[in-house]
Amino acid sequence: NTIQRIIDTADIIDVVQDFVNLKKRGVNYLGLCPFHNEKTPSFTVSPSKGIYKCFGCGKGGNAVNFIMEHEHLGYPEALKYLAKKYNIEVVEKEQTVEEIQQQNERESLLIVSKFANSYFQENLHKSDEGRAIGLSYFKERGFRDDIIKKFELGYSPEKRDALTSWAQKSGYKLEFLEKSGLSIVSETGQYDRFRGRVMFPIHGLSGNVIGFGGRILKTDAKTAKYLNSPESEIYHKSQVLYGMFY
Ligand code: ZN
Question: Residue 87: what are its φ and ψ, rounded to 5°?
Answer without folding.
Answer: 50, 45
